[in-house]
Design goal:
heterodimer, A: 645 residues, alpha+beta, ten-stranded antiparallel β-sheet, B: 92 residues, mainly alpha, 2 helices, 2 strands, 63% helix, 4% strand, disordered N terminus
């Protein structure tokens, strides 16, 4: 679809940015010491910190990625919501208070509190840096894809803008301003998501969604096939000429696409053999010169329309509409009906690649259970490897949350362990509520004719747009602020690793408090610039997929050592170093050698990668635990004295 | 060098809270593992109707709500324990 920046969107966006910078300026005057820069002086109220946790956590991937995935694949997107929230249980019950008791400013401090080991300082700092960078990439990519619809700017401009604003926030006031920005954003995001869900309920569901009358519903037509002799289609309507046909093998089936011409206009159709008709498709031509045509025309002509509707509601197909719905009847209406989903296939046309999106009517019952994205059903051809992939992802989400550096440093911003606990509970409650809402926002986008097939990340903001430009502008600005907040948290974590862990502790520079803050700020500028470059380089990569990596690395490198340090008396410094290194190297190595990376990052088509698993957690997390236990046993004598610590 | 950003006194309720945390974590992990196992072994079970919802949605929402309930219970018990042990700092 074609995005036109609206003045409202720009005004509300600028208002947000101005507010964020004012908060930073206000707190800048208070940020004199390293304790205020890295940990907001440990003075934040637990309720504020709890919502700020939610702000940190509900990143672009949570908000845009999950809603988009639900809009396209139904329940499978919601699995991310369940996994992300479950991770908080690990954070609350085993990490929050003990971490607060152990640490000073950073994750490394907590790991090293009992040992004062150079080895721990450098490995944990490197691990923090790498996890932060891996988590920064999807945030920056998300920022880039948001500014196009919001402000009508190119991808790189979005990345540079986010980078610059975030560096300004971090450099002026560090953790205090970041916390208040996150608080504001977290609270507003939850409130406006709730508003959006109630708007969806009040509109109800229609088989011909027209975005509240704003965008006329596109009536899909079919062309009758009267013969299929020698596998050549013959059409009833002789105005259409068949130009060419593609046959694409997909599992046991063969999909047949036809290019037709009528009065000089071209179009692509899919043969539905069981009904004996050709069905409309949407398609994107990727021309050899880099140009893209949407339904045969440049994007600006707006021929590529938004999709997503139910073809049947309660067994009836023609022009049905429900009344106002609620949390239960909304789900029931989808479960008892049929939703037209859109599947994607690529074909080649004289060197040009054409991506064809075709209708795939799916029973509501299948939408609301797992299996449309992740293959888990043996009856539908899921292999053992597919199942391992699924388990691995759920494991990474469960164990990754508590080990993300920008989440960990937030435990240090409150005055006491009890406050750390209370703020985690506020976080669980608000994040839990938000994740319940993601299911309704995603399904709402699925049936309201708002999905842009070329960018499913935009499903939630576009759903908001169907209710008016003001709520669209607010939701988009919030999504953008989401990126800002998460990126600043990550940059503080990363700059803490460089300035505090590596320079001050590991290299023993014994910096004065002022110099420590200055070093942190310089590190923040560097990390911010690296993040901008990566954000431009990784343009077009799937945001949720990248986040899965960051979680897997955090779960493998950081969590086993924190857990064992807290719960196993025999843990030694060398055991921790081994655990962090093994977790980091095995997780990173498996990601870099995985089939997904070979295909999507290196673009090696048809090359078989050494690692077939898409998510390494199921192997790398146990490896990290084993490394810690074995090495700790082997080094007991040397470090035995630490028990008294 | 190793002072914390903010100081606090001894926490005599710590061992109780750690024990509680471990058990709650274990219980939740089992319920979460059950969710993954059903998804992998019997996806069709997830499609069974439960009123106007189905097992998949009830279990998914259930995991979110269960997390909130456990969190509240944990906070309630921990706060009680902290108040109970208040003033007994020096004993530990």
């Amino acid at each position: 679809m074609n995005y036109i920046a609206s003045p409202w969107a720009i005004i509300i966006f600028l208002f947000f940015v101005a507010m964020v910078l004012m908060i930073s300026y206000h707190f800048a005057r208070l940020t004199k010491s390293s304790a205020t820069f890295y940990a907001a002086g440990g003075s934040i109220h637990w309720a504020v910190n709890g919502i700020a946790f939610a702000g940190d956590y509900l990143s672009a991937a949570s908000f845009l990625g999950i809603c988009g995935m639900i809009a396209v694949s139904g329940y499978d997107g919601f699995l991310y919501s369940v996994g992300y929230l479950a991770g908080w249980i690990v954070a609350l019950f085993v990490v929050a208070e003990p971490m607060k008791r152990l640490g000073k400013y950073t994750f490394t401090d907590a790991l090293d509190a009992r040992f004062n080991s150079k080895g721990i300082q450098i490995t944990a700092a490197i691990s923090t840096l790498l996890v932060s960078l891996f988590y920064l990439i999807p945030q920056m990519v998300g920022a880039g894809s948001l500014v196009t619809p919001l402000l009508g700017m190119p991808h790189w401009a979005g990345v540079v803008m986010v980078g610059s604003i975030v560096i300004a926030i971090v450099v002026t006031a560090g953790m205090t301003s970041t916390t208040y920005v996150q608080f504001l954003k977290g609270a507003l995001l939850i409130v406006f998501s709730l508003v959006l869900v109630f708007l969806v309920f009040s509109r109800g569901i229609s088989t011909k969604p027209d975005q509240g009358g704003d965008v006329p519903y596109h009536v899909f037509i079919t062309l009758k096939v009267v013969g299929d002799s020698n596998h050549t289609v013959i059409l009833e309507d002789k105005q259409y000429k068949i130009i060419r046909e593609w046959k694409v093998e997909k599992g046991k089936n063969v999909l047949r696409f036809l290019r037709l011409e009528k009065n000089g206009e071209f179009s692509i159709w899919k043969l539905n053999e069981s009904l004996g008709v050709l069905e409309e498709t949407l398609y994107v031509n990727h021309l050899a010169d880099g140009q893209q045509l949407f339904n045969g025309a440049p994007r600006e002509e707006g021929k590529f329309f938004q999709v997503g509707h139910m073809s049947q509601i309660a067994g009836k197909g023609s022009d049905e509409k429900t009344s106002t719905l609620d949390f239960f009847s909304f789900i029931k209406a989808i479960k008892d009906g049929t939703v037209v989903r859109w599947s994607k296939e690529s074909v080649l046309d004289d060197g040009d690649k054409i991506t064809v999106y075709y209708q795939n009517p799916t029973p509501g019952k299948d939408i609301l259970k797992p299996g449309l994205k992740f293959k888990v059903d043996s009856a539908k051809g899921a292999t053992t490897k597919d199942k391992f992939d699924f388990v691995s992802l759920m494991l990474a989400l469960f164990f990754g949350t508590a080990a993300l550096p920008h989440i960990l440093i937030r435990y240090y911003t409150v005055p006491s362990p009890a406050c750390a606990r209370k703020s985690t509970i506020v976080a669980i409650a608000s994040i839990g509520l938000f994740y319940v809402l993601t299911l309704y926002m995603g399904l709402g986008a699925m049936v309201n004719g708002v999905i842009d097939l070329t960018n499913d990340n935009m499903s939630a903001p576009l759903l908001a747009k169907s209710f008016g430009v003001v709520i669209f502008a607010i939701i988009s600005a919030l999504a953008f602020a989401t990126v800002l907040g998460t990126v600043s948290g990550l940059i503080i974590a990363a700059s803490g690793a460089v300035a505090h862990d590596i320079m001050d502790r590991f290299m023993g520079k014994n910096l004065t408090d002022n110099k420590k803050v200055a070093a942190g700020k310089i590190a923040a500028v560097f990390v911010g610039c690296i993040a901008m470059v990566l954000g431009v380089l990784f343009k077009g990569m799937n945001v949720s997929y990248l986040v899965g990596w960051a979680f897997a690395i955090a779960a493998s490198a950081n969590l086993p050592s924190i857990l064992m340090l807290l719960f196993w008396d025999k843990t030694t410094a060398k055991g921790i170093i081994a655990s962090v290194s093994v977790g980091l190297i095995s997780a990173l190595g498996m990601i870099l050698l995985s089939q997904e990376t070979y295909t999507n990052v290196y673009h090696l088509v048809g090359v078989k990668a050494p690692v077939q698993l898409n998510n390494p957690a199921i192997v790398s997390v146990p490896l990290s635990f084993i490394a810690l236990i074995v090495v700790s046993y082997l080094t007991q004598a040397k470090d035995g004295k630490r028990k008294s610590a | 060098m190793h002072n914390s950003a903010v100081k606090w006194g001894n926490d005599p309720a710590a061992s109780l809270k750690i024990l509680l945390g471990k058990w709650f974590f274990l219980i939740y992990s089992l319920v979460y593992a059950g969710f993954i196992i059903i998804n992998v072994l019997s996806p069709s079970f997830m499609g069974i109707d439960v009123g106007s919802l189905n097992v998949a949605i009830v279990y998914g929402f259930g995991l979110i709500i269960f997390a909130m309930l456990l969190a509240l219970a944990y906070n309630h018990i921990s706060t009680l324990a902290e108040e109970l042990f208040k003033g007994k700092d020096k004993i530990s």
